[in-house]
């Protein structure tokens, strides 16, 4: 009898939970549809007798919105899969192919495997080190190179936008301004804008050439820049003012990022102290009590314990990095 009552209670609670979940989802969907209908300017104006907004302005606004949607869709198609190995290699800027990366990974795994075999004399530990170093270390190095290159690009990109703004205000076309950037800027901004110039030499327009930058530098800043150029080419507008505003926004984001990094230095210092404690304690025990900790390196069970400890250390480092890593 108690079992039947418990079963009915469980079924009832599940039914109530599913009902409330469906109610929340459906209410959100209905609310979004009603709010989108209420925000649609054409439907609002049709329901009113006195039109307060001219129809020509509505048509122009709708055309601009459709153009923005098409541009965003084309940008997403051009970016493609940003997680693929070929994309990551192109983002890092190193002159490698996928085959070269695989060869480098194999060599790194082989070298670290031989070193671990010489140190621990254990085939299992050597195999684990070989696999982890060949799969993890090259990817970590690639991500580090990508992050370093992106930081350099973002540091120089506002200056490149200022060059375009000054050139456009002085009467030069955008293509000549991009050529000036190639001659005056440093890498990686120079290499990315050189691709734009080369694409123009192949017959592409300025907007199409700039849109190709997202394939090699998939950043929001580059997407904004490409969108501004594309909208100006299709609908017109004050290009110098738009790029000047974008340059100011990028500089403000850079200042905000510096403030956030300064505030996060205390957390980073704490993370370094916590991460270095196991090594400091191990060295202290080794020098104060010689031979006490040697069993971890000589006994196979100690190798397993060291492997588990290394895994937990890496996991803790990843968690602490995620806690102190702020996006601006």
User: How many angstroms does the end-to-end distance come to?
Assistant: 59 Å
SSE ordering: HHHHHHHHHHHHHHH
Work out the helix count: 15
Number of strands: 0
| CATH class term of the domain at 147-262 | Mainly Alpha
Q: Taking all residues together, what is the mean pLDDT?
A: 74
* Range of strand content: under 5%
CATH fold type of the domain at 147-262: Receptor-associated Protein
How much helix is in the residues? over 70%
Structural class, judged by helices and strands? mainly alpha
How many strands, what sense, and barrel or not for the largest sheet?
Answer: none
Please state the overall shape, judged from the principal axes of the Cα atoms.
elongated
Radius of gyration: 29 Å
> Which CATH-level-2 architecture of the domain at 147-262?
Up-down Bundle
Low-confidence stretches: 1-14, 16-53
How does this structure look, described?
Keywords: Cell membrane, Membrane, Transmembrane, Transmembrane helix. It is a multi-pass membrane protein. It is found in: Cell membrane. It comes from Candidatus Liberibacter solanacearum. There is one protein chain. The protein is built from 15 helices and no strands. By secondary structure, it is mainly alpha-helical. Among the domains are: 37 residues; 116 residues, Receptor-associated Protein (Up-down Bundle), CATH 1.20.81; 65 residues. Helix 3 crosses helix 11 and helix 4 packs across helix 7. The protein starts with a helix and ends with a helix.
Keywords:
single chain; 328 residues; Receptor-associated Protein; disordered N terminus; cell membrane; transmembrane helix; T2SS_GspF_sf
